[in-house]
Amino acid sequence: MARMNSASYDKLHSISRGKFSPQQFLRLKDLAANTVGVNNSIFDVELSSLLTLYKTLSKEIENLECEINKLVAEVHPHYMSIPGIGPISAAVIYSEYGDIPNFSNPGQMLAFAGIEPGINDSGTESHGGRMVKRGSSSLRYVLINCCLPLIRFDMTFAAYYAKKREEGKPDRVAITHVAKKLIRVIYALERQDIDYNASLIR
């Protein structure tokens, strides 16, 4: 901003529809030159070091993601055919659940992820409580986030989310119900050894 020229002013003047005066422009340049940043070589060295570290870490992450993609492609879980579940999300789900057919029912998968409803027992009655926050937090995070594109691009899950909202459920609670449905779908796909087909989902 301190190095802006007359051409820069013309653009700002046009964007502001003539309200940005030359005096304001000069004041802005002066402020940018004298109040933003510190002119010290040590900070240049520090910034250069941080940028180098960032580039190194970015490359390492890229290499790791490439290896993860290869491993997931070898396993090829059927739930990767669900819209919104990419290789990284599939890798987290697989690493947490392992061989899904080992689970006897979807309820066990819900409990493992820690998104089944809590139960408070009093005498002979049971009352549904808040969502239990046991289980794997990373798995829960991935499953919840997989639901966001699902309710945008898949009509079945979008309708289910809308139904829960119409029932008066807050957004977060409705998303949690979608996550539960997603887990049941994942369980069915792996048990039946089939890919996702929205027309077969109820």
Describe this entry's structure for a reader.
By secondary structure, this protein is mainly α. Helix content is 64%, strand content 6%. The longest helix is centred in the N-terminal third of the chain and has 35 residues, at 41-75. 20% of the residues are buried.
Largest sheet: 2 strands, antiparallel
Radius of gyration: 26 Å
Distance between the termini: 57 Å
Low-confidence stretches: 118-129
Q: Strand percentage, roughly?
A: 5-15%
Can you count the beta strands?
A: 2
Helix content: 55-70%
Instruction: Note the overall shape.
Output: elongated
Mean pLDDT: 85
Helix count from the secondary structure assignment: 8
Tell me the series of helices and strands, N- to C-terminal: HHHHHEEHHH
Secondary structural class? mainly alpha
Brief descriptors of the model:
202 residues, mainly alpha, two-stranded antiparallel ribbon
Condensed summary:
The chain is mainly α and 202 residues long. It has helices spanning 6-15, 22-35, 41-75, 87-97, 106-113, 137-153, 155-166, 171-192; strands spanning 117-122, 125-131. Strand 1 and strand 2 (125-131) form a beta hairpin.
Topology:
Elements: H1 6-15, H2 22-35, H3 41-75, H4 87-97, H5 106-113, E1 117-122, E2 125-131, H6 137-153, H7 155-166, H8 171-192
Helix pairs in contact: 3-4, 4-6, 5-8, 6-7, 6-8, 7-8
